Amino acid sequence: MAGPTDTLAARWTAVRERVDAACRESGRDPAEVAVLPVSKTFGAPMVREAAALGLARFGENKVQELREKTAALADLPLEWVLIGHLQTNKARDVARLASEVQSLDRLELAQALHRRLEPEGRTLDVLVQVKTSPEQSKHGLPPDELPGLLDRLRDYPTLRVRGLMTMAVQSDDADAVRACFRQLRDLRDAAAGWGHVLPRLSMGMSGDFPLAIAEGATEVRIGTAIFGRR
Ligand SMILES: *Cc1c(COP(=O)(O)O)cnc(C)c1O
Question: Is residue 2 part of a domain?
Answer without folding.
Answer: no
